């Protein structure tokens, strides 16, 4: 949402990645990398979540706090976004995939690899906890697209019964703040249910 008063209008197209929709010919035309998400804005097609967030912030003239014009404030948001994919995402998403989906396909993952991913997750959580000790949100006292990206990852820990983030009290408080935003709560409540359902359906077919 651009703001509580003026959400960005969009048409959602669900790509069932656990059923292989991303490998279809039509989707491949949009993104040859065959990954989600993809944004189609008229004749302009854009992939990669952080690129999409930046594009929407600029093209829809969102309130400045989402992606600040101030060079140093923007650099702080970019710093988090660049860090995200090789740290928090690795610790959550990669761990989730290898923990829940690899066994379905008979792919073995060593305990050493799991331990390495757990370490990445813990280091990432400590990094976030430190950032939140200085500000209400990850990059300052106002919400930004960095918070949206991080929340999308952190919420997935709910799908991992062996991951407990309760000792990171500032992250837990931040999650409550994020979930108090109606649009965020609505999107992520539905998303978690959809992921769990898709995973169950895929396992049933194999």
Automatic annotation (TrEMBL):
Q: Which spans of this chain does the record mark as coiled coil?
A: none
Q: Which residues form the GST N-terminal domain?
A: 1-64
GO molecular function annotations of the record: transferase activity
Look up the domain of life of the source: Eukaryota
Per UniProt, residues of the GST C-terminal domain are 70-206
Sorted UniProt keywords: Transferase
The record's SUPFAM superfamilies line, in alphabetical order, gives: GST C-terminal domain-like, Thioredoxin-like
Q: Which Pfam families match?
A: GST_C, GST_N_2
Q: Which InterPro entries match?
A: Glutathione-S-Trfase_C-like, Glutathione-S-Trfase_C_sf, Glutathione_S-Trfase, Glutathione_S-Trfase_N, GST_C, GSTT1/2/3, Thioredoxin-like_sf
Protein name in UniProt: Glutathione transferase
**Source species:** Euplotes harpa
